[in-house]
Amino acid sequence: MSDAPATPNVARAGGIMMLSLFLSRVLGIVRDTVMSAQFGINETTGAYRLAFQIPDLLFFLVAGGALSSAFIPVFSQYLHTDREDEAWHVFSVVATLMSLVVLAFIAFAWFYALPLTHLVAPSPKVDHLRPLIAQMSRIVLPAQFAFFIGGLMVGTLYARQRFVVPGLGPNVYNLGIIFGAVVLARFFDPGIVGMSVGALVGAVLGSFVLPMVAMARLGGRYRPSLNLRHPGVRKVFALMAPVVLGLSLPGVYGLILQALGTEYGAGTNAALDLSNKLMQAPLGVFGQSLALAVFPTLAQYFAQNRMDAYRGQLTSTLRTVVYMTVPIAAFLVVLAPEITLLFFAYGKGAASENLAMVADLLRMFALGVTAWCLHPVLMRGFFAIQNSLTPILLGTATTAVFLALALVLKATPLRHLGLPLASSMAALALVVALAAALAPRIGGLDHASVLRTALGSLAGAALMAGALVLVAWWLPVGQGYGRNLWAAVKLGLGAAVGFWVYYAATRRIGMAESATLARYLRRLDRRPQNGNCGV
User: Fold this and answer.
1) Is residue 520 part of a domain?
2) Is 5 within the bounds of a domain?
């Protein structure tokens, strides 16, 4: 019987996370489509987006994004070295303490919601919306408890290579918001308040109740404790500490974008949010899903001192992300108007003058898609080796660069378009800095192979973009709801043509990733032949 450590199935985990996050992003777009159709793209929907800024600010101030990232490697280290009782003790202490801290912050933010709107939306142009913003903020604030503590429970599932239930959480959350827009909105004035109630319900069910049930079924244990002297607990908070002190998470960019966007009126905030969500669709599907899938594996390899396997897995994941996302960026840039028409030109959103603004903003966001998708993978690379200080310092420095770029670019003729462009430029700088800093800490990183993949992907995407331009030029625009139909046709045909052009080009130049894709395509081509159709 072999004593070799088990090798986690990253491909399977990545597939599960990619599918679940793909469904989540689809539901997210449906959610935004419903909101646009029901309420338009205007200051009311802008107020809804700004209402989430106060809870989001709470999330970053209490280091919510780093809580599970700091917890998973420590929990995994105990779990995979036959110290399961200690693993659950660490979970219990962290969950108890963070529950008290988060509840205190929620109470403070709930009481001071109205004054806090001046922090997240400083422009006087939105003064008349502040009572509505504060009202919706108070409704969604309790959802942060579900996100924080639910994130810890999800961390225990990730550490045990369980990915289905964590993947369901965001889908339930989006369904709650859609239910709020379609059903609950009828019981509130203005109706958009119903979306906030739906967000709260979806967060509690998807991010708290589901993980709690799954964890309990797998034998999870929780006993309230404040034993802060346990070395595992101290290690978790040591990994979290730099995040509390440094504003470095990508979500901070969204906070800054929304705050600066208020200078142009709340309609711009709604357009910024919608375009950013469209950009984040591939980020969730290809960046976050692969990062979440590979993270427990990297943490396990580090705990078992298998650094060759660590380096190989990380490099492979980075190359996969690049190959998948460069053509998506090209697709978003060329067909941004069609994407906007297909998803947002319905009901009250159909006549909105802000539709064109959404498309222009999307193009600027799209330039940073690949960098933003690489970011969570590199961050998990640091967290897996239990180093949170370096990436946070680099992220904080890059956040300062982003703010400076945003202030400079918005003063140019680009105006509001300078905000997402600054975000894309800062994302690229951050990824380069993270990769350069991580390499010496893990015994080297194959930068050359990642660069070759990037250059090959750019060459293929350039040819793909040319084909997409021809598709957009050749097909008509349409009028009325015909615009939506022809936009769908252009996107469907563009996706098919663009995929084959990109695949053929990258296959021609001999990219390893295209060979892997070819093997998958051959498998798909053989499956129908092996079946017994209709007999």
Assistant:
1) no
2) no
Position of tokens 């961050």? 379
The closest of 291, 251, 245 to 389, measured between CA atoms, is: 245
153, 69 in Cβ contact below 8 A?
A: no
Cβ neighbours, 10 Å, residue 231:
11
Residue 98: how many other CB atoms lie within 10 Å: 23
Q: 2 in a domain, yes or no?
A: no
Whole-angstrom Cα distance, residue 58 to residue 152? 17
> How many domains are there within the chain?
1
pLDDT digits (tens, 9 = 90+) for 235-256: 888 777 665 554 445 567 777 8
What is the domain range of residue 222? Answer: 10-513
Cβ atoms 511, 451 nearer than 8 A? no
Cβ-contact 90, 67 below 8 angstroms: no
What angle (nearest 5°) sits at the alpha carbon of residue 29, between those of residues 26 and 33? 135
CA 193 from chain center: how many Å?
24
Tens digits of per-residue pLDDT, 170-224? Answer: 889 999 999 999 999 999 988 999 999 999 999 999 989 999 998 888 887 888 8
Q: What is the model's pTM?
A: 0.74
CA–CA gap between residue 301 and residue 317 (Å, rounded) = 15
Q: Which ranges of 84-159 would DSSP assign to H, the alpha helix?
A: 84-111, 113-120, 130-140, 143-159
Residue among 391, 401, 303, 380 at smallest CA distance from 79:
303
